[in-house]
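Example 3.2
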Amino acid sequence: MKYFIRQLFMVLSLSALVACAGTEPVDDGSVSARSDCIYQSSIRGYSVLDEANLIVSASARRKYHVVLRRRAHGLRSSWGIAFNSPTGRICSDFSEVLFDGHFNGEKIRIASIREISPEEEEDLLIRYGKSEPEFERRPAPHEVEGAEVEELDPVADDDKSGD
């Protein structure tokens, strides 16, 4: 009986650990702790940043950064995508993106959805090579060793030529 209880405790403990462990989202730096949802009927369009990141446009000029659980090979060349959710609200972890990829009707779960500002949208577009920055940032000048300028004393030069 003791052996059975120990096994049961071990199985329950390991099951809890496995349930807590999840796959990491594809994009390492843009997933925040906050997750927003989008009403499916409010979606107006989307832009593909890469095979795992989208910018979704919704009504009221809202924009969302959507990160997929894994890369969607063929997403960039797909004719269209659809969002699938049982509730009509697209949220991370249980909603999916459907698209025609290498397999017909491929589905990929959404890792995160985050509402973004126009500045954040521009930063994402620049980061993924979809837009050019308005101005070129120049690196700050830095000291270079051995590049000192030697000043010549014009008086000392006159003294040498007069000798």
